[in-house]
Design a protein that fits this description.
Number of helices: 1
Strand content: 25-35%
Structural class: alpha+beta
Helix content: 25-40%
Order of helices and strands: EEEH
Shape: elongated
Number of strands: 3
Length: 65
Amino acid sequence: MNENQKEITCFRCGKKLQPAETFFRYVGHTFHTDILRCPECGEVYIPESLVRGRMKEVEKELEDK
């Protein structure tokens, strides 16, 4: 589920987060990835590894255009 394979629960609802296709919009572009999301309220968990890795790469690519 995450880097440590721990179960992550939603702070708001207390429900177990589940992988779900999630769309992001940045600088007029939309992209998607599967990340953990609460099935009740939709709150997402974005792990640091994703932020510092793929999201940072996509951000740089879009800003360089």
